[in-house]
Amino acid sequence: MRRKDAQVIHFMKKTIILIPSRLSASRLPNKPLLKINNKSLINHVYEKGQSTKIGEVYVATGDNKIFEEVIKNNGKSILTKKDHLTGTDRIHEAYDQLNRNDIDYVINLQGDEPLIDTNDIVNLNNLAIQHNSEIATLACKLETKNIENKNVVKVICNENIKKNKISSAKEFLRSVKNEKIENIYHHIGIYIYKVTTLKKFVGLKQSPNEISLKLEQLRALDNNIKIDVVFANSIPVGVDTNEDFLEIKKLMEYKS
What we know:
With 256 residues, the protein is α/β, with parallel strands linked by helices.
């Protein structure tokens, strides 16, 4: 395909960003409403999504408090069922509620990573469209200190994504036994789905691997759905515990 043709196809594709959010996180309850610089975590992430200028941004939530928090800050939110097995199931319901037929791709942006680099999100969107990906996600350099950290999800790719920018995932895992594994990276929990693949994914049963490791992306791999991995230059800090929150709060308040 000629470069000009690829650019035309790219601009014809339309992406929206959906941010799944809930209050009932076991390790840090009410996480989305915690404030940094007088702004809730969920609204920081919402604004990060907007700043990419990729497309419309919505928070998908089953909690009225989150819905109201986004709306009162002039954001867009969709109220879903409260109980969903995964964030992807939640964004699928939100997509259905929008009742749109002009969307080609949906980005699932995690609501607890307010420091994710907008350039990495834009690059993920562009490369996924360029490669006609079914599902694509981000990964960055795996720091030595995180090799044994089970809260840091790892992804093994077929090729060196730092050099090639994109490759397909072979495996996602939490713990690593062999430190000399090639092409292993720190997975970042953001996904872009082709709409047809999103519909297919939520129609599949949770796989034993998914349930065992609590990694929903394994449902795709276990059903032979390819996941492309795009290299991210930044290492975002997720908020899973109160210690994470205090660390990220300190970082963001220092920057401001």
